[in-house]
Design brief:
- The protein has five helices and no strands.
- By secondary structure, the chain is mostly helical.
- It is elongated, with a radius of gyration of 14 Å.
- The protein starts with a helix and ends in a 13-residue tail after the last helix.
Length: 79
């Protein structure tokens, strides 16, 4: 494998499932999710809504993201 192939194969998407969702959502949905994450809605309710909309997410992922303890883009970068 060439050096160019190796760099092309690097996964540049965030490691955190919530961060990944934010990347692929419409701007309207992204803003709504960000407001929910910063607001009083429970992590369980956010998880339920996301799952109902077809996003594969676990409540623990939402909780870690809210605490800013998620993997984000990798161990050295926080969202």
């Amino acid at each position: 494998m060439s050096l160019a192939d190796r760099f092309a194969a690097v996964d540049l998407l965030p490691k955190c499932s919530v961060c990944r969702m934010l990347v692929v959502m419409s701007s309207e949905d992204r803003e709504a999710l960000l407001r929910a994450l910063d607001g009083p809605i429970s992590s369980a309710e956010i998880t339920r809504i996301l799952k109902d909309e077809g996003f594969p997410v676990l409540s623990g992922s939402v909780k870690r993201h809210r605490r800013k303890e998620c993997l984000g883009y990798g161990p050295s970068e926080k969202p």
